[in-house]
Amino acid sequence: MKLIILDRDGVINQDSDNFIKSVDEFIPLPGSVEAIAQLKHAGYQVYIATNQSGIYRGFYDEATLHAMHEKLANLLSQHDATIDGIEYCPHGPDDNCDCRKPRAGMYLNIAKQAGLTDLADVLVVGDSLRDLQAAQAVNAKPHLVRTGKGERTIKKGEGLEGIPVYNDLADFVQQLLDGSVN
After folding, report:
1. Phi, psi (degrees; rounded to nearest 5) at 137
2. What contacts 74, CB < 8 A, 6 or more positions away?
């Protein structure tokens, strides 16, 4: 089974240190919607795993989050594509939950939904160290993009040994479909 897990903010859509709080602020990065459609048309299952502590902080509610995801679904439908599932963590950094990345709870839920017993061959694309750490925790294959917090992650330089870096999601998908990604 070909399955990919994507982070959301900074990978699919623009990110903000002030959080993405509304449907209007949910702005896809150039080429990201088309890249997801390419994955789907190439036979991949595509899931999203995203920390959304803005809910905990009271910046937006779950209805607004679902409306953002509906906007993404509508954009993807224009390319005859869908997302297979979205896992999100609504908790704050100090809640000590199992789902907030760098913990692996969302990835394990995705595995269960997809009927997988392990995620060893699953590709994960993120823009932060915690995305990569969550992937490593389940033996998935982490990949970093420079968009979102990616450049900051690269500058810090910790925990990136052996992790491939791409300009953005479109670059990753192009290289994957060209056979350049392991």
Report:
1. -65, -25
2. none
- pLDDT tens-digit series, residues 111-129: 999 999 999 989 999 999 9
What is the Cα–Cα distance from 7 to 100, expressed in whole angstroms?
Answer: 12
CB atoms within 10 A of CB 68: 22
Count of residues in the chain: 182
Q: Where are the beta strands (DSSP E) in the chain?
A: 3-6, 45-51, 85-89, 123-126, 141-145, 165-166
Q: Per the confidence metrics, is the pTM higher than 0.90?
A: yes
Amino acid identity at 135: A
Residues acting as catalytic residues: 7, 9
First-last CA distance in the chain: 15
Beta bridge partners of 5: 47, 124
Helices (H) and strands (E) in the chain, counts: 7, 6
Q: Copy the structure tokens of residue 76.
A: 């993807």
* Residue 73 token pair: 């679904």
